[in-house]
Design goal:
The protein is mainly alpha-helical. It has helices at residues 3-28, 37-46, 50-62, 70-78, 86-99, 102-108, 112-121. Keywords: Membrane, Transmembrane, Transmembrane helix.
């Protein structure tokens, strides 16, 4: 067979196999839409229920619940400085680590990382000033 015909058949076979493989991957693992702004605002800011925030974060880490968009997180927490519950600091820091926006969060809330670490360990956040 001529070389150009072999190249053409190889490219055609690669195109068909590549498109078929992409189709199978995308139909087996469809991308979940992100959490809506209303749901995010209700769960992470509207309610201060520690159990609700922790269970939602657990479901997100497990992959059963989608993560929110960063712009929604920034709209709720970073639009203006607010008094946050320690569990909200933990959720905010978790999202900042996921989206690599730690500097943006630390500009608004300089103690966010410390409060999140203390919350994760189960210690009271008033110990931040003390040296352990």
């Amino acid at each position: 067979m001529e070389t150009w015909l072999e190249v053409l058949l190889g490219m055609l076979a690669g195109l068909i196999l590549g498109a078929g493989g992409a189709f199978l991957v995308l139909t087996k693992n469809p991308k979940k839409p992100p959490m809506t702004y209303e749901d995010f605002n209700e769960i992470f800011y509207g309610s201060v229920s520690t159990a609700l925030i922790v269970s939602t974060l657990r479901e997100m880490h497990a992959g059963t619940k989608p993560y929110p968009r960063w712009k929604d997180v920034a709209k709720v927490y970073l639009s203006s400085k607010k008094d946050l519950h320690p569990m909200q600091f933990y959720a905010l820091w978790t999202f900042a680590e996921k989206y690599k926006k730690k500097k943006d969060v630390l500009k608004m809330y300089p103690d966010c990382e410390k409060i999140a670490r203390f919350t994760m360990r189960g210690e009271h956040f008033s110990k931040i000033g003390s040296k352990n």
